[in-house]
Every structure is written in structure tokens, then in C-alpha cells.
Design brief:
The chain contains 14 helices and 15 strands. It is of the alpha/beta class. Bound molecules: zinc ion (ZN). Residues 60, 62, 215, 253, 305, 308 line the site of zinc ion.
Length: 407
């Protein structure tokens, strides 16, 4: 039994956060066994100079692009052609793929992120290496090999059958291999995937209740291209619906420029939207309709979208979620919720992770806050959201195991 003394900041809902100062958390068999004001046992780990939050959840991130974050290009397609695609090719070399994966997961743990949903490059071995590294490092990860079988640079282009079969092979090998690892089928987006490939993915994933992730309606040029490539469909979302890609375990990255009909399809199929505000700023993709999506009842969450996003830090993402809105004020409570419990809900894992409650797995991040004893809940939460980049993570735990400790 591990006992930790700390100050808990816990998301309850998108407008409510609970603060429990000077509290003891006991952890047994990976889970939170108790949360209490006193303990009999005097032997505990003292993190009372820190605030304890649920491990952060990044629901959309590209591992193979980790090294090109911050490399500027003013729009999505130029950025894909000039930065992303050439960089993803480098992961064809297993040694390079291993180095990226190691640096990527090390940085995630250091940023307090305990769960991430990951695209790797379109190379099977690079995806295998990402899983191996995640397992070695003890993080919770849902990982998939990016699929692209049309309209792609020659050096990334896959044959339809091979793309599908390699993904199935990776799924069989890694999905739920450990309690922390799962597979996600990852057709990059409609412009680079054939109808046939998406249909095959949809059928297989629905049958196996597997996750699917893709991009949707990020950029106006992308939408125009999709209209040209798929003329028989009413809108972008309908393509995914008709090809069987949508469902409760489908994660749709961006969803900025959706019309009401498209929102209806997403709601009806219980698909999820992943909002990546830093990336939207960086690539000038547009403003995510935060208030409209929230009111629609569609589940959504926050994500870094590195390397469209510049930083793996979910603190940076929370801040950007607030900054990116012009006419709607995202509160610190909302930003915090969608990077924790909201992320867990999108993954249908809200009974397991996302908040600090007895019975949930102990995925925790301890953030050191200067002069913590003189701060109230509101100030602490606000500092986390707006000054997170300056704050240091003291320790990170995944399923009760210490995976990072600041030296
Ligand atoms: Zn992305």
C-alpha cells in the first residue's frame, strides 16, 4: 500500500472542480483505495508542496511528428507536404523510430500526461516500436499506424490491401496486450484514403469494437478537396458515415467547420470530436465552435495534435482552448475538465480514469506550486491553466506506478 500526502484538485464536471487540501491518497493494486484527511500509518510520501491532478489525457497526437513541432508553415497542405510527410518517412528507419518514441514518451511523462491517443507513421515497424516503447515506459496509450492508400507522396503511399492487413496484424498483436495498451485504426483522413480502405476498416473495427481515429473538417481547402474527390456525398461527415467509419469509439480530430446536418450525424452515431486549439492557431485552420459543440451534446475533449500543435503540454492546450475563442469564454474549470475527465469520457474510460476517486486507477500528476498553502482553489486552478508551462511536474503515476519523478 502506497500512501501520499498532497492537495487534490479534482474535476467533477465541466463547471465544477473540487479542492481537497492536505489530504492522504492510498493506492493499492493499481487503484485509489482511499482518500482521507487522516491516516493511522505515519509512513507516507510527502507531496504536500504540490497539487495532485488526474493524469492528463491527450486524445490526438502524432508521435512520428514529434521532432518537427514548431516548424512553421502557414496552412495545412503546405505543412503536410513540406514538414510532416518527409519527417514521417524518417520513421521507416527502426533506429530513428525508436529514438522518436523514447523522446516522445519521456516528454509526455514529464508533462504529466498519462494517457494518449497516438498516430504513428505509415510503417508497421514504427508502430510496433511505439508500442514496445510505451510498454517499457509504463504509460497508458492507444496507438495506431497511419493509413494512406491514395493521393499521397510515393514514399508514404500504401497498397490498400497491405495497409489494411498490416493494421489488423498490429491490432491482433497489441490491442489489450496489457491493461495499458490498445490499438486504434487510423485512416489519416478522406483525401488520402480510398473508399474501399475506409469500408474495410469500418467493418472490421465495428465487429471488434475497436477504436478508429481520423481527421475531419479542419481546413477550408481540405473541405473543397474532399467535395471534389467524393462528389456523390452531401457533406464530409456523410462520407465517413456511409463508409462505416463512425460510431461510439470513433475519434474525429478537429471538426471546426461542420454544418448542423454533420453535427446531427456525429450525434446520432455517438462519435466523438477532438479539439486541438494550439494546432488550429498554428495552422490558421479556424475557430472551433466550442459553445455550439458543447450545447449539441456531442462528447468532445482536448488534444495537443503535435506537431500541428507546438507543444505536448496539456497545460499549454488548456490555455490555448481559452485563448482560441473569440466570443465565448472557456472557464478554467472547463479547460481542466476537457483535458481530464472529459477526455476519459470520450474514450469511454470515465469509470477507470480521468478523476481522483476511490476505485479508479491511480493515474496521477503532481504539480509543484510555489507557496501553495496560501492559495485558494480558484487561484490554483487558474494558475494551472494559464501558467502551466512555468510549473514543474514533480511526479507522474500510471496505474499506481511511479513512472516519472523530478530529480
Ligand atoms: Zn492530427
Amino acid at each position: 500500500m502506497l500512501i501520499i500526502k498532497t492537495n487534490i484538485l479534482n474535476p467533477i464536471s465541466s463547471d465544477k472542480v473540487e479542492f481537497l487540501p492536505d489530504t492522504f491518497i492510498s493506492i493499492s493494486n493499481k487503484k485509489i483505495a482511499s482518500i482521507s484527511k487522516t491516516i493511522e500509518n505515519q509512513d507516507f510520501t510527502d507531496y504536500s508542496d504540490s497539487v495532485c491532478i488526474p493524469g492528463l489525457i491527450d486524445t490526438h497526437v502524432h508521435l512520428s511528428q514529434y521532432y518537427v513541432r514548431g516548424k512553421h508553415n502557414s496552412n495545412l497542405f503546405d505543412w503536410l507536404d513540406n514538414c510532416t510527410f518527409p519527417e514521417e518517412l524518417k520513421s521507416k528507419d527502426p533506429e530513428y523510430a525508436r529514438k522518436v518514441a523514447q523522446d516522445f514518451f519521456t516528454a509526455l511523462k514529464k508533462a504529466g500526461t498519462t494517457t494518449s491517443v497516438i498516430y504513428t507513421s505509415p510503417f508497421k515497424e514504427a508502430c510496433n516500436i511505439a508500442f514496445e516503447t510505451a510498454e517499457e515506459m509504463g504509460v497508458r496509450a492507444i496507438i495506431g499506424k497511419t493509413m494512406m492508400d491514395t493521393n499521397s507522396p510515393e514514399y508514404l503511399l500504401e497498397d490498400t490491401e497491405t495497409s489494411f492487413l498490416e493494421s489488423v496484424e498490429l491490432f491482433e498483436k497489441w490491442n489489450k496486450k496489457t491493461e495499458l495498451l490498445e490499438y486504434v485504426f487510423s485512416p489519416r483522413f478522406a483525401p488520402v484514403c480510398s473508399s474501399q480502405l475506409m469500408k474495410m476498416i469500418g467493418e472490421f473495427a465495428q465487429k471488434k469494437k475497436a477504436y478508429i481515429q481520423t481527421h475531419l473538417s479542419e481546413n477550408q481547402d481540405e473541405i473543397k478537396l474532399v467535395k471534389k474527390l467524393f462528389p456523390k456525398y452531401k457533406n464530409y461527415t456523410e462520407i465517413y458515415e456511409k463508409l462505416g467509419i463512425l460510431g461510439p469509439k470513433t475519434l474525429l480530430g478537429h471538426g471546426i467547420h461542420l454544418d448542423n446536418e454533420e453535427l446531427e450525424i456525429i450525434k446520432k452515431t455517438k462519435s466523438k470530436i477532438i479539439h486541438c486549439p494550439d494546432s488550429n492557431f498554428f495552422l490558421k485552420s479556424g475557430v472551433f465552435p466550442f459553445e455550439k459543440i458543447k450545447k449539441s451534446g456531442i462528447d468532445f475533449s482536448l488534444a495537443s495534435d503535435v506537431a500541428g500543435g507546438t507543444s505536448l503540454s496539456m497545460f499549454n492546450v488548456m490555455k490555448m482552448a481559452c485563448y482560441r475563442q473569440d466570443d465565448y469564454t472557456v472557464s478554467p474549470e472547463e479547460a481542466f475538465y476537457y483535458a481530464t475527465l472529459g477526455g476519459a469520457k470520450v474514450l469511454e474510460k470515465e469509470d477507470i480514469i480521468g478523476s481522483i476517486d476511490v476505485g479508479k486507477e491511480a493515474d496521477l500528476a503532481f504539480v509543484k506550486i510555489p507557496d501553495i498553502n496560501n492559495k485558494e482553489k480558484k487561484e490554483l486552478l487558474s494558475k494551472l491553466v494559464f501558467l502551466g508551462n512555468e510549473l514543474k511536474i514533480k511526479a507522474t503515476y500510471v496505474a499506481g506506478k511511479n513512472v516519472y519523478e523530478k530529480s
